[in-house]
Amino acid sequence: MRVLGLVVIVLTACFPGTPDDTTLLDGPLDGLTPPETAAFLRGDAQFARRFSVAEGLGPTFVATSCDTCHPGDGRSHPELALVRFGRLVEGGAFDPMTEQGGPQLQSRAVPGQAPERVPEDATGVTRFLAPQVSGLGLVEAVPDATLLALADPNDADGDGISGRPQEIVPTVALADMFARDVALPTGVGTSTPYVGRFGRKASATTLLHQTLTAYVQDMGITTPFNGVSLLAGSEVLDAGFEIDAAEVADVTVYLRTLKAPPRRNAGDTRVTEGERVFGELGCSTCHTASMVTGPSVIAVLAHVTFAPYSDFLLHDMGPELDDGYTEGIALPSEWRTTPLWGLGLAAQSQGGQGFYLHDGRAHSFAEAIGYHGGEAAASRSRFDALAEDDRRALYAFLESL
Ligand SMILES: [Ca+2]
Ligand SMILES: [Ca+2]
Ligand SMILES: [Ca+2]
After folding, report:
1. Domain ranges of the chain
2. Taking 60 as the threshold, does the pLDDT of residue 384 lie above it?
3. Fewer C-beta neighbours within 10 Å, C or N terminus of the chain?
4. Dihedrals φ, ψ of 315, to 5°?
5. Spatial separation of the C-alpha atoms in residues 43 and 37, rounded to whole Å
6. 23-58 in b/e burial notation, b at 16+ Cβ within 10 A?
């Protein structure tokens, strides 16, 4: 179905009034080998696959397919947000309430089973909008060392910004998962901590890690690597899984080889003006414009410069964005810098209206910037003082991403 849809869109792309390549997030990177293209197409179908109860859906779940929440590989509408919860305990530690079904709420269940409810004593309840999934193979192929070099945990350079990595200690289960991966990204598989880079709290290290968590937590589909926790890695199953390792590998290759979100109007004078303003306000200190990948077994991912507009580090965004919920080493007020590529295409997969920030609480770029506190407060003050012309240029730039 999806593959057919893509072909139709490609065939009609040259006629007026139909979507062209620059408005689509779906589609492979240029230059894939024939086997990579074949895996991409198989993975595309898996990504759209709707699981039935007979195929193993549940017993509790949130949605029945990956693309319910990532329509057209884009972001979700707030109505489809994932709910996660937990409790702050004495001394400031965070309890993900695993005994009561935490941290993720499965709000639906197959017939005869009870869906979960948020426990009454949860103190932190948050809602995560699904991000777009295109371009992530490039992100995965960035060496850990690149992200560690951008971190400034003690703000040694005194600019008020102190991004830090979500370092994930390599458990035996995680190491085992990576050992079975089809394309070990650089920096993974060594004895050093892995730098998490996927998810709002950067708690997943690789696309395989993220995919396994999605299958088991979002759809109740077990895999040979039965991801049991959002952070702690996975338990390995010898039997009783509902999709096999080859199907998981296809989805992972699909995610790895989705093209980067396309730019629009990048050469317009107003857009280039806006990019200058973006730099002057200090936005690019966190929303890093340019990154370079390391080696990769997928040749087109190796040593590529790309523009995600993120440093993939955790930043303290102040009380404005503190939901009392967290994962790993992140404080409740710390979030991974959202990559801004694809920002101008957000509304199209969200029903015509853009919803920004982790829970979609902002309905415009200005509102999203308005919630930037903590390390980003100085940047926000400079934005507040902008002349109208510069402000319009900044919006044109953000819209072009
Ligand atoms: Ca199941
Ligand atoms: Ca749960
Ligand atoms: Ca700094």
Report:
1. 32-257, 269-400
2. yes
3. N
4. -130, 140
5. 10
6. ebbbbbbeebeeebeebbbbbbebbebebeeeebbb
Residue 190 has pLDDT above 70, yes or no: no
pLDDT of residue 7: 42
- Residue 363 pLDDT more than 50? yes
Residues paired with residue 109 on neighbouring β-strands, in sequence order: 60
CATH for the stretch 269-400: 1.10.760
**Ligand 3 centre and the CA of 342: distance in Å?**
27
How far is 97 from 360, CA to CA, in rounded Å? 25
Ligand nearest to the CA of 316: 3
Q: Ligand 3 center to residue 267 CA distance, Å?
A: 31
pLDDT exceeds cutoff 50 at 370 = yes
User: Which ligand has its closest atom nearest to the C-alpha of 86?
Assistant: 2
Q: Which ligand is nearest to the CA of 99?
A: 2
Q: Which ligand approaches the C-alpha of residue 85 most closely?
A: 2
- pTM equals 0.93
Provide mean pLDDT across the span 120-133.
97
Interval between CA 156 and ligand 3 midpoint (Å)? 6
287 φ/ψ angles, rounded to the nearest 5 degrees: -85, 70
Instruction: Give the ligand with the smallest distance to the CA of 154.
Output: 3
